[in-house]
Amino acid sequence: MSERPAGPASPDAVHPAVRPVAHPAEPALRPETRAVHLPRPAVDGSTPLSTPIYQTSGFAFDDPAVFADGMTRPDGAFVYGRLTNPTVRALEEAVAGLEGGAAALAAGSGMGAINAVLLALLSPGDHLIAQDVLYGGTAAAIAELAGRFGIEVTYVPQDDPDAVRAAVRPRTRLLYLETIANPMTQVADLPGMCAAGREAGLTCVVDNTFASPVLCRPLEHGADVVVHSVTKYLGGHSDVLGGVAVFAEPGLHRKVWDFAIELGATLDPFAAWLTLRGLPTLPLRMARHCENAALLATRLAGHPAVAAVHWPGLPGHPSHALAARLLPAGFGGVFSFDLAGGRAAGDAFMAAVRLARLAPSLGGVETLVLHPATTSHRSLTAAELARAGIGEGTVRVAAGIEHPEDLWADFAQALGRTG
């Protein structure tokens, strides 16, 4: 990418200490290639192979006009870290490229990205339609919006476009979905649901964290905004906290950016650098996550201590047919299973695993297990847990990239202690 013209006559000029982000020349690259050839901030006469960390709170200028212009827009000169930063912008453009979006906004966490989008696009008295099974943090944020700002919410099944059409009101503004729901792995009918939303003029927001852009790109199915917790698969090494929102068109990105910089949800440069370091191996990791989940889910489904397994790759899963169409590259690395012995069996299993770790989050190289009812979905009432299909004996598994037979040996010995 060529340098923008400099000089006082051009408000688009870039301070000579910072060059624009360099992009791969070929727009049709496959995800495996795009993940390696990420945009990187250019320097005089060369481009670094690894994105540098611009660990600075601000930038100095020779030209007052360039300084002033950089304060007003997300693609201007780098001015102040809360607005943007070369390392952070490199991450934003990398994820936008992987998702096929026009622009992106990085935030300090996945919930930071989600709340920035919701708060920027909703006003008191507006109406939101959301799928009825959501990540617990998102469900809590929506409940807070409803209680604090009078946002009305209607919940619908994730695969019922007619329910969206029936729920639309004059003040409906937004449709919120998850590609693969946490933790019971229902798959949203993104083409149908987004089409119904667009018919009503709604902004369609999709949380694609569980799929990653390797398995699904919701913008291709009609979404307007895609959000990720980069803490999960994008970072991939359990060492970073961050979020990102990708936008189909620049105007919507600008609207959310204007709000987000005042909200102060900005990602820091070091977290952006850690995520950029993880992205090149994302396709390789996702393939192994999916392979390990497939082996574990299949064997658990045949174990006498297990009452049910919830993974869209299994033919008996309610979303299997939809997932086969929407997720041709893999069914995801997260699944849940219900132990026949209920809560006591769940506690015994999680206490007995040795290779898998009892920990929050997902998407790192290690396999993690947790009890959704008391951790990720602790804010839900008993009725809401039941509606989501989460039982006292439900265990969520985030498959890592270890050898699958080692993982199964660990699971098998732990199952033997569930009574």
From TrEMBL:
Record PTM N6-(pyridoxal phosphate)lysine, positions in chain: K232
E.C. numbers: 4.4.1.2
Record's catalysed reaction(s): L-homocysteine + H2O = 2-oxobutanoate + hydrogen sulfide + NH4(+) + H(+); L-methionine + H2O = methanethiol + 2-oxobutanoate + NH4(+)
Enzyme class: lyase
Cofactor needs: pyridoxal 5'-phosphate
Stretches assigned to coiled coil: none
GO cellular component: cytoplasm
Claim: Glycoprotein is one of the keywords in the record: no
GO biological process: cysteine biosynthetic process via cystathionine; transsulfuration
Pfam name, any one: Cys_Met_Meta_PP
An example molecular function term from Gene Ontology annotations: homocysteine desulfhydrase activity
UniProt keywords, alphabetically: Pyridoxal phosphate
The family this protein is said to belong to: Belongs to the trans-sulfuration enzymes family.
Protein name from the UniProt record: homocysteine desulfhydrase
Species assigned in the record: Sphaerisporangium rufum
Taxonomic path: Bacteria, Bacillati, Actinomycetota, Actinomycetes, Streptosporangiales
